[in-house]
UniProtKB/TrEMBL annotation:
It comes from Streptomyces azureus. InterPro entries: GH, Gly_Hdrlase_35_cat, Glycoside_Hdrlase_35. This is Beta-galactosidase. SUPFAM superfamilies: (Trans)glycosidases. Residues 40-187 form the Glycoside hydrolase 35 catalytic domain. It comes from the Bacteria. Gene3D superfamilies: Glycosidases.
Length: 793
């Protein structure tokens, strides 16, 4: 047996309160506060989850549904850069119309109970041209991002315009703005950060929290800004031949180190410039840029998998995070510039060439609203935080006796505990990208508490499988029942069948066990396995995870509790929301949103289905469509008898084969540059795509999904660029409803795919041999996502 031991120290003194210059608006019903260790709301510990979504990179007509997807995914606050160059590319013409409607976006957040965090810059980064600063501004200001008066004067005008858009949307007026970020990644100008905050306040902007990014050895102006941190599973901004960066590797270890000197290190030194570190004993550990994915640059094209995102997020909770903020949570598309392209590139002096249009970021919700596996991975964690975040936030992170010897130690199991001294949550991460971690056989954990007996779990050693990451409860009270420990992850609770049901997620390869405090148990009924009295506990074992794995407990105080153990795959289909007059669980592997009396299902399945607990009184109605009802364990499953899907085959015709790959070219910092437009026009293979008329008549939810190889690909309608991608081994999706339908009908859709030279200094993750360098479309299909509005009968 391999013992893993951890001793919980005596709980720390209460956190500092009232020591920071942050205050909510007077009289608000749920005032936001900050202690030295966690945030509060309405006097209760608060664990927010924020997700980045750039409104100006997405069609305004679709904002509302996408915000509802984010909310269903467990996001409680939407963060967005307010990108100056998107609004004022031409000096003096500040636009807030159409997809630039900042106020409309913030009002939609408020309508659906989502907090809003505008990141107002002026410099944003965000892989935008000039970091978001307009060209005309750079032509005028000799020293941007300083207190140069020639820079501050237009900033003052810009902040005034932003403030007018957000007028009366602050907390004092019942609005959604809970925080405002000043600048981004400015590590050595604390005085300028103070100036920008003052200018924003003078313009009329207000929020209970003013924040700043804090990575890279930042120097902050005293305690005026709340430091926010980040961490990514991969990076496009490092060298093509640099391997997996250690600054990314570190995020798959449990540690109490908050800073990440690697984020944006291509634009600044990685070493701290003699600054004192941010005093972590005075600020809670909050994040704004945990990697929900990663952009793809020309010279370096990382792949980020769902498990990478999920393991990183869960690890940060175990490390001590009290605010999970993701960048990006929702992908998008750069708007076409009126004067220039709006992506960052070598042409703008930036070290990395980015695609002209796509900013998909491999995010949980994609450039066209695609629901990806990482969305389901993160939703599972966000359900945990929604139900138990108020307990987790005040808990301190404690590391085990035996720690990894360094960032290349793959043999020592990585784990930690969040605890209040008597109870807690045990976190394990046995996954990291690129370099798989081994199985850990014969594993058992002993957690010693200062004010309570130690816990040892499981009842017999288990193997922690390679790739697993999970959270187990320690002395969790559930409606009168004490769950001493479980080898399954808490998901959420729901009232069903006269019981409070705690849903747990099993881990593949580890048999679920439930240890109940015998003093809180009157009786136990298990669907499978057995309940055995053992040393003051009732040990429930042998439960086969699934929708029918409900352990029914009558507690000693008369309450009734259910413990439902779902298998790992099913647990990742759990949604929780208000549906048809009650709080319900919905199981669905597709997209689900909750909107008042209506639940909407978005699915590309031929016959979509979903399961509900507790079941509504009658079968939900889908206009014009029959819904079948059947039992699915303790759930009720509904199947929609949808009309057959049309043929998904795509007519793709090769018009011109590819020529010889252009010679590689290098640009800023000696990194490979994207080929010039002339090569795309003359060398690329060209294809014509025939779009069926029935799809043109109803383009919403239709994707052209392409599997291709080569260097870069671009799609055109006529001579207008409508989509692009650098090859990284991922599929290339093009949303039909983003295209000018009449132009497509008249002129068709053209694809150009450029080959890659064998000696190009380009890193593409996971690609062996050279066959992928030859330009070509390998497979194409139409993916049609249909939507069903489910209403009460």
């Amino acid at each position: 047996m391999t013992p893993h031991r951890l001793h919980v120290p005596t709980p720390s003194a209460p956190p500092l309160t009232g020591h920071l210059p942050f205050a909510d608006a007077p009289g608000v019903p749920d005032p936001i506060g900050v202690t030295s260790r966690w945030l509060t709301r309405g006097g209760r510990p608060w664990f927010p989850v924020s997700g980045e979504f750039h409104y100006s990179r997405y069609p305004a007509r679709e904002w509302e549904e996408e915000l509802l997807k984010m909310k269903a995914g467990g996001v409680t606050a939407v963060a967005s850069y307010v990108i100056w160059i998107h609004h004022e590319e031409i000096e003096g013409r500040i636009r807030f119309d159409g997809d630039r409607d900042l106020r409309g976006f913030a009002e939609l957040c408020a309508r659906h109970g989502l907090d809003f965090v505008p990141r107002i810059g002026p410099w944003c980064h965000a892989e935008v041209r000039n970091g978001g600063l307009p060209d005309w501004l750079l032509a005028r200001a000799h020293t941007p991002r300083t207190d140069d008066p020639a820079y501050l004067e237009p900033v003052r005008v810009w902040f005034a315009a932003v403030a007018e858009q957000l007028r009366a949307l602050d907390r004092a007026h019942g609005g959604p703005i809970v925080a405002i970020q000043i600048e981004n990644e400015l590590y050595d100008q604390p005085g300028h950060l103070r100036t920008l905050k003052r200018l924003a306040e003078e313009a009329g902007l207000s929020a209970p929290l003013w924040t700043s990014t804090a990575w890279g050895g930042v120097q902050l102006p005293g305690e005026e800004l709340l430091p926010l941190y980040g961490g990514y599973p991969e990076a496009f901004w490092t060298e093509a031949d640099g391997g997996w960066p250690d600054t990314c590797r570190k995020h798959f270890f449990f540690t109490h180190e908050r800073d990440d000197e690697g984020i944006g290190a291509d634009l600044r030194p990685t070493a701290v410039r003699g600054a004192d570190p941010v005093p972590v004993d005075r600020f809670p550990w909050a994040t704004c840029e945990l990697g929900g994915g990663m952009a793809v640059a020309y010279h370096r094209r990382p792949r980020v998998e769902a498990a990478d995102v999920g393991a990183l997020g869960l690890t940060k909770i175990g490390c001590g995070s009290v605010w999970q903020g993701y960048y990006m949570f929702h992908g998008g598309t750069n708007p076409p510039g009126e004067l220039t392209p709006l992506q960052e590139s070598h042409a703008t002096g930036y070290p990395n060439d980015l695609p002209v249009l796509t900013y998909d970021f491999q995010a949980p919700l994609g450039e066209y609203g695609q629901v990806r596996p990482s969305y389901h991975e993160l939703r599972l964690q966000h359900l945990l935080l929604a139900g138990f975040g108020h307990r987790i936030a005040p808990m301190e992170s404690v590391l085990p006796e035996r720690l990894p010897t360094g960032q290349h130690d793959r043999e020592t199991l990585r784990w930690a505990v969040r605890t209040d001294g008597t109870s807690g949550f045990l976190f394990v991460t046995n996954h990291q990208p690129h370099e798989p971690l081994p199985d850990h056989p014969d594993a058992a954990f002993t957690v010693g508490f200062p004010d309570a007996p130690p816990l040892t779990l499981p009842s017999a050693p288990v193997t922690v499988p390679s790739g697993a990451y999970f959270c187990w409860p320690l002395r969790l009270d559930v409606a009168g029942l004490r769950l001493e420990w479980a080898t399954a992850q808490p998901v959420c609770t729901v009232e069903a069948g006269g019981r409070t049901v705690l849903v747990l997620a099993a881990t593949d390869g580890i048999a679920p066990e439930l240890a109940l405090d015998a003093d809180t148990v009157a009786s136990v009924a298990t669907p499978t396995g057995e309940a055995t009295p053992v040393a003051g506990r009732v040990l429930v074992s042998g439960v086969r995870p699934g929708t029918d794995a409900l352990v029914e407990v009558d507690a000693a105080d008369g309450s009734r509790v259910g413990l439902l153990v779902l298998d790992a795959a099913t647990a990742r289909t759990v949604y929780r929301g208000d549906a048809w007059g009650a709080e319900r669980l919905v199981l669905c592997g597709d997209g689900v949103v909750f909107d008042g009396d209506e639940v909407r299902l978005h699915s590309a399945a031929a016959e979509p289905s979903f399961a509900v607990l507790p079941a509504p009184d009658s079968v939900p109605v889908v206009a014009g469509t029959r819904v079948r009802e059947a039992a699915d364990g303790v759930f009720t499953r509904y199947s929609i008898e949808a009309a057959p899907l049309a043929d998904t085959a795509v007519a793709v015709t090769l018009v011109r084969p590819a020529g010889r790959a252009p010679d590689p070219v290098t640009g800023v910092q000696g990194r490979a540059s994207a080929p010039a437009d002339k090569h795309v026009e003359t060398v690329a293979a060209e294809y014509r795509v025939d779009v069926p008329e029935d799809l043109l008549q109803a383009p919403a939810g239709v994707l052209l999904r392409l599997r291709w190889a080569g260097d870069l690909a671009r799609a055109y309608v006529g001579d207008v660029l409508v989509a692009d991608q650098f090859y990284s081994g991922r599929v290339w999706d093009i949303g039909l409803d983003r295209l000018p339908v009449e132009e497509v009908r008249a002129r068709g859709l053209r694809l150009r795919v450029l080959p890659l030279a064998a000696d190009a200094a380009v890193h593409v993750a996971g690609q062996g041999g050279d066959g992928w360098r030859a330009a070509g479309v390998r497979h194409a299909e139409w993916v049609v996502t249909r939507s069903w509005a489910l209403r009460p009968a």
